[in-house]
């Protein structure tokens, strides 16, 4: 570091640290979480790491220093390894009548516990559905007492689970559901489900997933009330369970005899092993047709994308939309498709 001032030497020291951390994050999707669960924490911070390295790159570039190459290298490497988290595309979304529209939304029990100062949340969500007119809706965290007549949809899958303190989910459809089942995640309050739906003389399978929660929801006091060691164990155990659940879904999905869609709350980002295990060679609708940042959740006031809609190669992704409606701690997402010939 010859030729650098004392301040620049300190700056480059921190630059190297952030560059190495981003480089480590690039390996998270390809590392076993059974062996290194703590590394998955890095997947939550990829956007912040990219921003910090981008600022270092600009700083060294403006000062005409070769140190700019350090962050430039990890940024380029990260782009080709992890992909982008920002899509430059028109924000206007035009859903067509002849497209299959699928919405996913973690509704957090329709504000039953009054996390939001709004007593009209169920009606607000119902109005959103009426306005956007999705053909299929996948809800997570609906509450054990949700009624099937909450929405005016002719078909639904809403199964109450009496044991295990499970978090309940629901699927509503305008098209006939011919078969549907819960996919149990052992030793977890979370679970998955699927529904086989008749659509245009064909059968499609829709997976509705709610992956293991990290248990550190902002605003609940968990971060303040627990020691760092206990919090670390809690998060790393959650990542291990997520990976096991992802493997259960990947195996189940591989045996699907039908054209397949996957949606839900993954409780992890697109930079995680969990995401890549479930996605496989499927299309991420945000990557295909989304725009902007695509955030679906604010974690510690940092916007991240943890709610996804995916489609196999039998579908053409036509549109994707992220909503800003604040009716839960998550934001709704909708995508539309056409079946390929």
From TrEMBL:
GO molecular function, one term: endonuclease activity
Organism superkingdom: Bacteria
Metal-binding listed as a keyword: yes
InterPro entries: Endo/exonu/phosph_ase_sf, Endo/exonuclease/phosphatase, TDP2-like
Annotated TM spans: 12-32, 38-61, 68-86
Cofactor: Mn(2+); Mg(2+)
One BP term from GO: DNA repair
Keywords, comma-separated and alphabetical: DNA damage, DNA repair, Endonuclease, Exonuclease, Hydrolase, Magnesium, Membrane, Metal-binding, Nuclease, Transmembrane, Transmembrane helix
Domain Endonuclease/exonuclease/phosphatase per the UniProt entry, residue ranges: 103-330
Alphabetized PANTHER family for the sequence: TRAF AND TNF RECEPTOR-ASSOCIATED PROTEIN, TYROSYL-DNA PHOSPHODIESTERASE 2
Listed name of the protein: Endonuclease/exonuclease/phosphatase family
Organism: Zobellia galactanivorans (strain DSM 12802 / CCUG 47099 / CIP 106680 / NCIMB 13871 / Dsij)
Taxonomic path: Bacteria, Pseudomonadati, Bacteroidota, Flavobacteriia, Flavobacteriales
């Amino acid at each position: 570091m010859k030729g650098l001032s004392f301040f620049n030497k300190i700056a480059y020291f921190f630059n190297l640290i952030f560059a190495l951390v981003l480089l480590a994050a690039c390996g998270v999707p390809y590392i076993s979480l059974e062996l290194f669960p703590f590394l998955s924490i890095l997947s939550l911070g990829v956007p912040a790491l990219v921003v910090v390295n981008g600022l270092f790159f600009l700083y060294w570039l403006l000062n005409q220093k070769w140190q700019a190459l350090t962050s430039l290298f990890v940024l380029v490497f990260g782009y080709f390894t992890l992909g982008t988290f920002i899509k430059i595309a028109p924000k206007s979304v035009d859903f067509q009548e002849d497209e299959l529209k699928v919405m996913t939304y973690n509704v957090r029990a329709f504000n039953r516990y009054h996390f939001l100062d709004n007593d009209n949340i169920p009606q607000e969500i119902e109005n959103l559905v009426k306005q956007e007119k999705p053909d299929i809706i996948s809800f997570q965290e609906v509450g054990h007492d949700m009624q099937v007549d909450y929405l005016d949809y002719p078909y639904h899958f809403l199964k109450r689970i009496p044991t295990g303190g499970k978090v309940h989910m629901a699927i509503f459809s305008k098209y006939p559901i011919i078969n549907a089942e819960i996919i149990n995640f052992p030793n977890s309050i979370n679970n998955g489900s699927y529904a086989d739906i008749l659509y245009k003389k064909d059968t499609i399978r829709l997976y509705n997933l709610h992956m293991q929660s990290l248990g550190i929801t902002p605003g609940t006091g968990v971060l303040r009330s627990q020691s760092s060691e206990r919090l670390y164990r809690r998060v790393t155990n959650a990542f291990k369970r997520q990976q096991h659940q992802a493997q259960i879904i990947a195996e189940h999905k591989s045996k699907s005899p039908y054209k397949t869609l996957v949606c839900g709350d993954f409780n992890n980002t697109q930079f995680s092993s969990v995401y890549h295990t479930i996605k496989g060679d499927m299309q991420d609708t945000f990557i295909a047709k989304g725009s902007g940042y695509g955030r679906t959740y604010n974690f510690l006031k940092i916007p991240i994308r943890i709610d996804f809609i995916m489609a196999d190669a039998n579908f053409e992704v036509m549109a994707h939309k992220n909503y800003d409606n604040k009716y839960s701690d998550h934001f709704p997402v909708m995508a539309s498709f056409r079946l390929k010939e």
